[in-house]
Amino acid sequence: MDAAPNAKYNPVYSGAIDGTSFRLLRFSKSQHGGFTGLLKKFELARAPRFYSASYTWGTKTYSGATIKFKAGELPVLQGLQPFLQMVSEHGDFYDDDWWWIDSLCINLADGKERESQVRIMADIYRRAKRTMVWLGEEVDGNSDCRGAIQFLHYLQDLQPVFSGLRADLARTSLRSPYMAAHWSSASSLLARPWFKRVWTVQEMMLPGEVKFYCGKDSISRGKLKTAMYSIFLCSIGDRDIDVELIPRKSFDLAFNRRRIHQWHMNPKSHGISLVAILAYMGNHSASDPRDRVYSVLGLVTERDRQLVGNPEYQTSVQHQYAKLVRSFYNEYRSLDVICFSHTFNRYAETEDPGIESAVPSWVPDWRVYTKYASPVPLMASQSANEHIGNFRPLHGQDWKAKYDAPGGRLHGLANVRFHEDLKEAWCDGVILDTIDTLGALESCHPRCESFVCAQERPLHGLLQDSMDPDPGHRAPSNPIALISSIARSLVLDRQDKYLRFVAPDYYISDFLIICSACLDPEILPEALHHTMDPDFAAWFHHNRHLRFGPWTLEHIVKTIVSSTDPSLYESLPPPTLHSTSLSHRVNMVPPDSHADVNSDYADNFLSRFWDTSRKKSRRLMTTKEGHIGMAPCRARPGDAVVVLFACSIPFVLRRVGAREAWQVIGEAYVDGFMNGEVDRLLKRGIRSIHRFRLV
Predict the structure, then answer these.
(1) pLDDT: which is higher, 353 or 661
(2) Banded pLDDT at 531 (limits 50, 70, 90)
(3) Helices 248-265/221-235 angle, 10° precision
(4) What is the pTM of this model?
(5) Residue 647 to residues 430, 467, 690, Cα–Cα distance (Å)
(6) From the centroid of its chain, how far is CA 561?
(7) pLDDT, tens digit, for every residue of 342-357?
(8) Burial of 557 (0-12, 13-18, 19+ CB in 10 A)
(9) H and E: helices and strands count for the chain
């Protein structure tokens, strides 16, 4: 909800309202083309039945139309005027209906009134008998949505077909050229600004009933959700959501709301975490960045609502975002929230917004736009972290794996403190090591769009000194341990993208076979040559000379493949990939060569590899002492890899300034140091506790 330029005193708004009362509106069309209306104050608990309206304000320009009251008149926003016109003419509505429409029922020029109404907004939408979502006229400028609502009704009726024998026939029919106009119309509808605004999320979730209007055509919330799932089912098996059917950006905005509503309504869920929904809505927009937090308070757990406190618009965005970190720590005794500065930071954008409006590096900057909204965007979003939360499917609630880098004892030694101006924070931890080399992400098409990374030449290229490795003729003494550590790192040691289960050992063998096939395609049976992923082959080509101590990745793979020592292979689990020379199991994953590694149903090494490298933009790293792991793409050799005692995930930090201070770069995966192993280093005197000043 945005502020309006009305005068603070307006006689139309006579009678103050507070956190227990609100105004309702009756309106009708006047003889002169405008509207006449009545505004009346009610106690929220004793209000009559009313409709609420959900719409977009647009550029906050006014249509020229007004609503005339006895005490004066109110201008009507340009984006709202067609909705009022439709309601006045539609047979579903009557002149004596009560309505709650924020831009008319609240004096937004009065800051205190605005804050008081924001506090009860969730209750207003819950109490409405129905919320009417206005998506605009069928034709609005270049956006042509004619027939879109009817097509969505058709799609929702098809959902049972996708679980039956005629599913492939239905997909073929829907993808045929004669359906292109329908998909174009639906795409235009889902691209309407309403789906991008942060406030409209809870406006869609909270009411008992919601109906979407485009022109005079309408569809219920339940049917829209079903239609979105039909679109998903129609797209399963191909990567064509953004090519043949609905552009990916528009599809995600609508489909993710379906997932949020499932979590909101699920009686078995523990509620929605504030941090999870802030991250999941990173592809939404807000005129006031503080509303990124306030707009979802009606959806989150009571515990998270309490730590935010009452909405207020007097302090700066930077202060409020930093205060959120402090409040989160005070409530949960965890700094896992700062992991989100990995994604939500000024350096993640295509252009530098400048230092003037920047938040400290340890504060997630929720203003940053993320092109892709992931249900599990970070390791801190692991399914085990209920205080962070994620948006995994409801059928995947169980989990058996948990990252806990400091371990239980060290959590109690975190010694966290915040400066009173919230520009610095302190936390105890351990410096594990410094980064030595970083792998390439060339040809991986990572989602990173950072202006910092864009300056690399080559983009996301291999980062290590130019000195050639000199292993002599010595083979690594334990190549299986090396290849195992590399494979675990590439999948963050997790079987699934929701980070619920430890990666199975056969991922190691699968990785070895795929790498071997990059060196010699004959390793795979001829019938399976077409299944070799060309993007992975390109990744291997760019990383074949990445050094792990004195040995390169290529050398390690060749050492294992060329070995005649049977005991070497006995230590490898059977792979799921068939190799003519390395395995006797005949089963290539994915079994369907067209299977989408982005699908909810794909758990295999390649799907996990791409989730880590492409979707999360992580690159292999080695440290000075030979530790192997994954680092943010923005990491650089010389950065420190640390375990902060208040965080479950290790970090890459960068030393800055004359006085020792540290800048947060992002999460790190360090193989062998994800579950309290650092405590052993302290007890043996190999490492000491370090006080980190984060800026």
Answers:
(1) 661
(2) low
(3) 130
(4) 0.90
(5) 12, 36, 15
(6) 40
(7) 999 999 888 888 888 9
(8) buried
(9) 23, 22
